[in-house]
TrEMBL record:
Keywords (A to Z) from UniProt: Oxidoreductase, PQQ biosynthesis
Source superkingdom: Bacteria
The gene coding this protein: pqqC
GO biological process per UniProt: pyrroloquinoline quinone biosynthetic process
Lineage: Bacteria, Pseudomonadati, Pseudomonadota, Alphaproteobacteria, Hyphomicrobiales
Functional description taken from the UniProt entry: Ring cyclization and eight-electron oxidation of 3a-(2-amino-2-carboxyethyl)-4,5-dioxo-4,5,6,7,8,9-hexahydroquinoline-7,9-dicarboxylic-acid to PQQ.
Domain Thiaminase-2/PQQC: 12-222
Pfam families for the chain: TENA_THI-4
EC number, UniProt record: 1.3.3.11
Matches recorded under PANTHER family: 4-AMINOBENZOATE SYNTHASE (PTHR40279:SF3), PQQC-LIKE PROTEIN (PTHR40279)
Catalytic activity from the UniProt record: 6-(2-amino-2-carboxyethyl)-7,8-dioxo-1,2,3,4,7,8-hexahydroquinoline-2,4-dicarboxylate + 3 O2 = pyrroloquinoline quinone + 2 H2O2 + 2 H2O + H(+)
InterPro entries: Haem_Oase-like_multi-hlx (IPR016084), PqqC (IPR011845), PqqC-like (IPR039068), Thiaminase-2/PQQC (IPR004305)
Keyword Electron transport recorded: no
Species name: Labrys okinawensis
Pathway field: Cofactor biosynthesis; pyrroloquinoline quinone biosynthesis
Protein name: Pyrroloquinoline-quinone synthase
Amino acid sequence: MTTLLSPAALEAALRDIGHRRYHNLHPFHAALHGGRLSRDQVRAWALNRYFYQAMIPVKDATILARMQDPALRRIWRQRIVDHDGTGDGDGGLERWLKLTDSLDFPRDYVVSTRGLLPVTRYAVQAYVEFVRERSLLEAIASSLTEMFAPTIISERLAGMLANYDFISPQALGYFDKRLSQAPRDADFALDYVKQHATSVALQQSVLAALAFKCDVLWAQLDGLHHAYVTPGLPPPGAWIPGMELAS
Ligand SMILES: O=C(O)c1cc(C(=O)O)c2c(n1)C(=O)C(=O)c1cc(C(=O)O)[nH]c1-2
């Protein structure tokens, strides 16, 4: 890309990255949504993804701390409220723990992240590091995978409820909320990026930020697939089905 794109063409280029690289294309998700995973494989997904959920508000607080405009902070801080809630027993992270509860993981085991795959930890940490080190524009652009989230969340809700008798609508309550939160967040971030990516270099940087974030999501599923599907080689220290989880 060597010429400046119009805002509409930039949006189209961002959407094209999603169509080619978003984690809805990963075979692990196809198996998860299609009912082809065992209960233990679904448990591994929920356990590992807890760390992504837990670090999203840390990532957003990092972005918030870099914003010098109070109007911008006022909008961005809602993301932290969505995940952390306004009191005990509230918020997205709590709703994620309801899912891991329903899959019989002790909360202290989940929260300790002891059983995490190393690749989950590294991928999620790379996301937090990215928003700390790169420009604010790139940090905001890296959240744009959320443009594609409502579609995959709808597929996941329908697929998991239809295919797994051990998954209830209550256990997937986290995703109900995201169906309205994600589009609101993505619309704002997309408008910001279209308005501020005003040079070829800036446009290249936001496209690269979105590709990077797709890699962060993809790598987590690669890790799950390798450890728990094929060849099925959980690394030392990672959770193994049937292991004793006493804290
Ligand atoms: O279920 C999903 O596939 C999915 C994907 C993404 C995403 O695209 O990064 C997010 C979420 N869920 C999500 O629940 C969430 O809170 C979230 C925050 C962010 C972000 O980058 O700020 N992405 C996502």
